[in-house]
Amino acid sequence: MPDRALSPDFRRATPEGDTHERDVCDHCGFIAYDNPRIVVGAVVTHAGRYLLGRRAIEPRSGLWTLPAGYLEQRETPEDGARREAREELCAEIVLDRLLAVYTIERLSQVQLIYRARFDGAFAAGSETLEAGLFAWDDIPWDAIAFPSVHWALHHARALDAGESGAPFSNPPGETGAMAR
Amino acid sequence: MPDRALSPDFRRATPEGDTHERDVCDHCGFIAYDNPRIVVGAVVTHAGRYLLGRRAIEPRSGLWTLPAGYLEQRETPEDGARREAREELCAEIVLDRLLAVYTIERLSQVQLIYRARFDGAFAAGSETLEAGLFAWDDIPWDAIAFPSVHWALHHARALDAGESGAPFSNPPGETGAMAR
Description:
The structure is a homodimer of 180-residue chains.
Chain A: E1 10-13, E2 22-25, E3 31-32, E4 37-46, E5 49-55, E6 64-65, E7 68-70, H1 77-89, E8 93-104, E9 109-118, E10 128-134, H2 147-160
Parallel strand pairs in A: 4-9
Antiparallel strand pairs in A: 1-2, 2-3, 4-5, 4-7, 5-6, 5-10, 8-9
């Protein structure tokens, strides 16, 4: 068993042959490469209505979001997006195309967001307080969890209206910082 | 200073509240989330010729590849693709669009490959033995480093010929395994 009295003790150092500083554990020399993380998700609709879930977990618990989460090891982004919709909203979705690639610089997060459809059957999963299928004007715009949820919903609407340019990137000047 | 006699000693365990097994260090309890890693790169052309570099580093040292590498923290994929072209081939590239999103399952790697142009000025960087600008038929097809380099070159040619569907994914049945 690990010695639980001992916690990792990281300092910044540049490993030999590397070009960037990394976190190196002072106890065991482990190098935490701490790479950017990949979030996969989808803007999912049925009969013109948008599927959203109200978060049961931090951060932004109680606010509405798209089905999305961290890509797992050895998982394709497409499989990950389908898994998140299944876990969070009990929905079996069909991916149309890659809608957007967003970068949340502060979190070193790259988001791959797909455009998807489903048959209309859904329910709240264990990390979701409540699930809903909303007409555009009924989306709870004042209670959206993250800026990138706004971006993705508007990009999906633009794509559906025939706008070119997908996959879209962050709107100009937007970094995904929460203060807005 | 770290005790260099001690190395990380990972075992598989599911942390409390998590849904997947992770590597947990037996010395200090550090949880290595070991997420998929993001590779960014580009198919770069000038006047119809393709920019490639011969790798000076393992894996696949001596073989030809696109400018590509791991995305760094707080870096956008676009900036990362430009940085890799600058570091490996001393080329200032202009991105046209996202060409492909490939998944190399065995390596838990997601590759974001762009279509790009440049002004024709290049040189071998420190991780590159030799750089070259090749007409399609002169590409060293028998000495390409990775399957995904083949995929990206052919997808770029398809895109240039007007084929729809970009960003492309892995060719059907292809997982990126090196045995082929």
